[in-house]
Amino acid sequence: MSWNFDDLTVGSGGAPPVASGCKLASHVFEAQGTQHVFYRAADGKLVELWWRGGEAPHWGYLTTPGNGAPLAAGDPASHVFDAEGTQHVFYRSTGNQIIELWWSGGAAAQVSNLTERSGSAPLAAGDPASHVFDAEGTQHVFYRAAAGEADSQIIELWWRPGQQPQFVKLSERSGGPRAAGDPASHVFAAEGTQHVFYTSVDSGLIELRWPGLAPSSRDLLSGHGGAESPDSKPASHVFPAKNMEHVFYIGADLHVRRFGIRGDQTPALQDLVIASGGCPLAISGPASHVFNTEGTQHVFYTTSADHIIELWSIE
Predict the structure, then answer these.
(1) In terms of Cα–Cα distance, which of 172, 198, 166 is closest to 183?
(2) Model confidence over 77-128: pLDDT tens digits?
(3) Has residue 282 been placed in a domain?
(4) Which residues form the domain of 170?
(5) Residues pairing with 117 in the sheet
(6) Is 264 among the domain residues?
């Protein structure tokens, strides 16, 4: 598998620098043929980069005085809800609540406080992950809980259009270990399963997998003796063309690594710094997505110069 890289910060011609250590979010809006990357600037505002095909990236602020969105204390997650033609970004506010920004077309972003709407969901200790489960028409947000009854558990918020969010203590339900880092998530539509990945308190890379109410748990590092433990929040996606799941993370050596997963087989591990021929080292956890129209996979991360690097692969 061949990997290439670009510098999106330089290409945008003026996007503000990424806040040091910020973890990126990204998605594809297939209805418009656009790719999107989201990040937190040093002043707590959220920034969006977007582009079509071979265009140079455009950029703009999502948190503006006009929409009253609170500043971000953490880093974003994002997804597209195809059934409603909407894009969604989620982040942790300075009050440790989970905030949703959503919009359709070129409209301004709307703001929703999911923690308040849920009634009693625990406050967040870290940054969220999110996905849409199309089979049930539901949206899902996952995060690591703050100190208290649910300390360091992975919390799930989920809802259908027009409903208030409900919450579940997902780690407790699965019997999985408590979290030392923030989660990533995706849906594997071909198998009807939802997946959450996170670094555990014992330095494992944990996958929670479920088709129903009771998730199972496994450590992806098991069987990889001597493999670098994660030093970042992971990223993940499904590549339907190969019927394969992919999980990306940064090791202590600042190399980007990829797990390729098929079912219950031992995941295959790859160092993308080596595979790309020497892409820059990473200082933050990655983001990733698949652009099905072009049959490409994309991974994004930041460097010590606060630039955004894109790794991409054509199968």
Answers:
(1) 198
(2) 999 999 999 999 999 999 999 999 999 987 788 999 999 999 989 999 999 9
(3) no
(4) 10-230
(5) none
(6) no
CATH of the domain at 56: 2.120.10.70
Handedness of CA 54, 56, 62, 66 (dihedral sign): negative
Distance from C-alpha of 230 to C-alpha of 250, rounded to nearest angstrom = 6
Longest dimension (CA), the chain: 52
- Residue 189, in any domain of the structure: yes
Q: How far apart are CA 64 and CA 303, in angstroms?
A: 26
C-alpha 18/C-alpha 24 separation (Å) is 9
Q: Which amino acid is at 54?
A: G
In 3D space, the residue among 83, 85, 87, 119 whose CA is nearest the CA of residue 100 turns out to be: 87
Q: Residues 229, 252: contact at Cβ < 8 Å?
A: yes
Tokens linked to 306: 């606060």
Out of 123-132, 166-175, 218-227, least confident range: 218-227
Alpha-carbon distance of 127 to 93, in angstroms, equals: 10
Which pTM does this prediction carry? 0.90
In a domain, 3, yes or no: no
- Mean pLDDT, residues 192-203: 94
Q: What's the pLDDT tens digit per position in 157-169? A: 999 999 999 999 9
- The total domain count for the chain is 1
The reported pLDDT for the residue numbered 1 is: 61
